[in-house]
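Q: What does the assembly look like in three dimensions?
Context provided by user:
Components: two
Sequences:
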Amino acid sequence: MKQTFSISDELLSAYIDRQIGEAELQRVEKALAAEPAVRHRFETLQATVNLLNNTPDVVAPRAFVLSESQVLAAGGTIRGAAKRSSFWQKWLPRMMPAATAIIAVLFFFSLKMTPSTLPTLSQQQPAPAMTTEKDNAQEANVENIETEAVAMSAEEQAPMVADEVVDEATTNTAAQPKAALIERNVTAPQEEVSATAEPASKTAQTEKVLPKSAQPQAIDASAPTETTNIEAANNELLPPAAPPSPAHSSTLTWLLGVLLILFIFLTWRITLRRPRPE
Amino acid sequence: MINLNLMDESQLIAAAQQGDLPAFNQLVLKYQNLAYNVAYRILGDADRAEDATQDAFIKAYKAMGGFRGSDFKPWMLRIVTNTCYDYLRASKRKPTNSLDDELDKGEYNPRFRDPGEGPEKYVERQELSRAIQWGINQLNDHQRAVIVLIDIQGLSYEETAETLGVSLGTVKSRLSRARAKLRDILQAHQELLPEQYRFPHREHSVSIHS
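A: Here is the predicted structure of the complete assembly.
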């Protein structure tokens, strides 16, 4: 009578590794000798194990040594480095975005003061004062325009006053700003009156009298011509507009721009590219 | 200054438990290939294996204070396998790659240890590795871990039981099921295997008891 064996794969697997007792070992060996089906299962199982044993090792693509930043980012502590790094580890990711935002605001503010806009701004600054003076002059002109004599009188007064101012300027230069201010208040409406009274014939004179705040010039006390004196006097009389230097502002904008890019990069590195926490 | 190269494993472990990162990194250098190979075979993907290995070492460093055993290797591998389980769970929603997709993947290009063999032998080993990996990918998470640890990495049943935190009986049971399933898979796709590794032909028509 043919004996049948009930040999499971678990038993065959343990048999391959010799992880069975003596009694089970003998039972398996008897089955292997008597049953081709059991033998086939055993052989294929053994072949599978051999395949796995021959599986080639792969080489690690890199070293997995840990850096201090990786450990600290994952909430770990390092002897010696823990106290030194914990403050920055905690606060740097929070401070960097705020610092970047502040620099961005400063940068965009500085863009408003670029060299291309600076001259326009400096020219526009005295405009309200001049407009007021002009309005006053126009009002005065409306009152006095009725008679040509009055207009002519005002026209004659303008260079005279200007000459006086030039004398004042050449002797005192910038030493007496108060006096110059008073003189300006006196002369400005009269100049405008003359300009308004005869716009066509006095164009050249008006251009000389009009402010040139965008191009401040040093007064040459020894200038021989009257025209130069008048220009100098007008320059002296102009309200002191003090815009930032275009070159200085441009450098500042560049510096802020570079700083902004740097901070955006650092913020990205510190806050977004931190090693994945556990 | 202590020379870390002269310290034995127990001294390195003691130093690492005190927060000595260079000492821990010495342990990393010793076990990184083993850890990466386990992760690579369980996950079946080089990039994810790299991430999992790095994560496992970070976890291990943080958990060093709780290490009370005498054998670092199974403790370390336990963290690696648990990290791999996390990765497998995270990727459960992704559809399983078909065999063609798997084999056609251009990124499947791990670097093998070079025992000084010729190019033909190297290609053969690549084919074998690819076929086995595809078969392992068909197993469930626990079966993968046990077959990788015992049949590929050569751990004993006891070490595997300690690594996986299960009993010896569970290890035997999972291993036998994993081997039997892998055998059936590879038998059905013998064309993937290099000639010399193909299964023996069945001489008689018999019924399979399992």
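Follow-up: Chain B touches chain A through 64 residues (CB under 8 Å).
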